[in-house]
Amino acid sequence: MDETRKFHFKGEIEQSPRAVLFLVFEALKEQGYNPINQIVGYLISGDPAYIPRHNNARALIRKIERDELVEELVKAYLSIEQEDDEEQP
Which residue of 9, 34, 42, 84 lies most exposed, with the fewest beta carbons within 10 A? Predict the structure, then answer.
């Protein structure tokens, strides 16, 4: 029994980076912040103070590595750009 085992709390549900970004975006809007500016500030600096505690947004975003969040944003952006390019004759 040399294996490291991972404990999962039954109430803990892992959320995708995409889902977390949407939840954080909504929490920021509800608090009157500019969500894009705040998320960019967090992604660049790593400072969780850019994200409010409202609706547990700060705790949620800190569970996901910043590089995973950036990866999700780039994938979404590039898929939109590809769709636009395919629609043009």
Answer: 9
